């Protein structure tokens, strides 16, 4: 038997940073975003021994453990070890991990990998959890057990999937509001958006730490910026539901300018140049995805200038990505491993079935 877990990566439109403690505990936070058709995958092949072998296909890394040992979090595939502990996996297996985007891309990769791991392991163990329980567990393992800096949004976005307005009312008090957006609006929004890789990998922990410190020190501009970012998330939700997409695009610009005031580490000259080139070519607004410092830029461009924006961003060193929205959340399924034995594949073609005559 092969058990697979898959979770979608996400793009956030507004509210980023307000889902991070202590701001969300003291004031409440709000995020608007959607998942996209780029994924984190986990495959598990159970074994009849105590050996656990983990293969990271993206990093060409293999690490081996014993199912009976006490895991040490030493920076080598700690997400896997923490997930094994969380679901009390005490049987040997092979685990394969693969993600469609690198760490530091701003698409929530580490949290999405965690969700795919837990989905596959829960399926294997026969553990039933609803979406809230799964997202809560993923947050607990990543943020509290491993101490990885970040907010709440990524685990919930990956688990629930689709367009959501997520509110954070306090510690472990999260409400996911699925947005019922007309299909025509979703199609038009996707057509008018560009996803551009900046070429920089960010270190989100450093940026989040700086943002949190600015808030704790009550730096007036940083605190005001967080309040603005939260308010703009509500405004984006309203404009998106109404289908006022050009207004939505302009709100992205307002949100980006507010977010940059939360920490001086959020942007850099390369990112600013890409953004400015896009606006000069006709983009109404956009934002850097994730904590900042690198990763992907999301730009809203009216359809008649989108090609010009794309050309200017590529000339400035940006790398455009092919993508679309994904409305489904995390999933897990099983397959008979014998059907995927590639060592001795034999296919018999019925005689005459493909005898075409021109």
Supply the key terms:
358 residues; Ribosomal Protein S5, domain 2; eight-stranded mixed sheet; four-stranded antiparallel sheet; 12 strands; globular; kinase activity; GHMP kinase; transferase
Secondary structure: elements and pairs:
Elements: E1 2-14, H1 23-26, E2 29-46, E3 51-56, E4 61-66, H2 78-86, E5 93-99, H3 109-125, H4 131-145, H5 153-160, E6 164-170, E7 173-178, H6 183-191, E8 193-197, H7 204-216, H8 220-242, H9 245-259, H10 269-280, E9 285-288, E10 296-300, H11 306-315, E11 319-320, E12 331-335
Parallel strand pairs: 3-5
Antiparallel strand pairs: 1-2, 1-12, 2-5, 2-6, 3-4, 6-7, 8-10, 8-11, 9-10
Helix pairs in contact: 2-3, 2-4, 3-4, 3-5, 4-5, 8-9, 10-11
Description of the structure:
By secondary structure, the protein is an alpha+beta fold. It has helices at residues 23-26, 78-86, 109-125, 131-145, 153-160, 183-191, 204-216, 220-242, 245-259, 269-280, 306-315; strands at 2-14, 29-46, 51-56, 61-66, 93-99, 164-170, 173-178, 193-197, 285-288, 296-300, 319-320, 331-335. It has one domain (2-335): 2-Layer Sandwich (Ribosomal Protein S5, domain 2), CATH 3.30.230. It has eleven helices and twelve strands. The strands form two sheets. Strands 1, 2, 3, 4, 5, 6, 7 and 12 form an eight-stranded mixed β-sheet that branches. Strands 9-10-8-11 form a four-stranded antiparallel β-sheet. A hairpin with a 4-residue loop joins strand 3 (51-56) and strand 4. Helix 2 crosses helix 4 (131-145), helix 3 packs across helix 4 and helix 4 (131-145) packs antiparallel against helix 5. The chain is globular and about 60 Å long. It starts with a strand and ends in a 23-residue tail after the last strand. The model has no long low-confidence stretch (mean pLDDT 92). Residues 79-162 form the GHMP kinase N-terminal domain. GO terms for molecular function: kinase activity.
């Amino acid at each position: 038997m092969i058990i697979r877990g898959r979770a979608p990566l996400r793009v956030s439109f507004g509210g980023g940073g307000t889902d991070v403690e202590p701001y969300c505990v003291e004031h409440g936070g709000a995020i608007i975003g959607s998942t996209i058709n780029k994924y984190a995958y986990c495959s598990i092949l159970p074994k009849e021994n105590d050996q656990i072998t983990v293969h990271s296909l993206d990093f060409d890394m293999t690490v081996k453990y014993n199912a009976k040992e006490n895991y040490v979090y030493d920076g080598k595939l700690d997400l896997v070890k923490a997930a094994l502990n969380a679901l009390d996996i005490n049987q040997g297996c092979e685990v394969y991990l693969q993600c469609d985007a690198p760490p530091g891309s701003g698409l929530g990769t580490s949290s999405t990998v965690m969700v795919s791991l837990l989905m596959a392991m829960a399926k294997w163990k026969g553990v039933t959890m609803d979406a809230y329980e799964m997202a809560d567990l993923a947050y607990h393992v990543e943020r509290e057990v491993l101490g990885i800096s970040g907010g709440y949004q990524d685990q919930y976005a990956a688990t629930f999937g689709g367009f959501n307005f997520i509110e954070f009312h306090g510690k472990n008090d999260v409400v996911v509001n699925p947005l019922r957006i007309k299909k025509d609006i979703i199609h038009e929004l996707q057509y008018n958006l560009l996803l551009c890789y900046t070429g920089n990998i960010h270190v989100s922990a450093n940026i989040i730490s700086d943002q949190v410190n600015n808030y704790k020190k009550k730096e007036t501009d940083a605190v005001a910026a967080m309040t603005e970012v939260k308010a703009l998330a509500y405004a984006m939700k309203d404009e998106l539901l109404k289908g006022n997409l050009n207004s939505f695009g302009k709100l992205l610009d307002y949100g980006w300018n507010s977010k940059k005031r939360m920490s001086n580490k959020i942007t850099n000259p390369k990112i600013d140049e890409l953004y400015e080139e896009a606006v000069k070519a006709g983009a109404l607004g956009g934002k850097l995805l994730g904590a900042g410092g690198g990763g992907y830029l999301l730009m809203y461009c009216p359809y008649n200038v989108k090609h010009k924006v794309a050309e200017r961003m590529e000339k400035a060193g940006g790398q455009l990505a092919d993508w679309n929205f994904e409305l489904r959340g995390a999933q897990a399924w099983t397959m008979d491993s014998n059907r995927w034995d590639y060592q001795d594949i034999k296919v018999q073609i019925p005689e005459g079935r493909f005898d075409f005559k021109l």
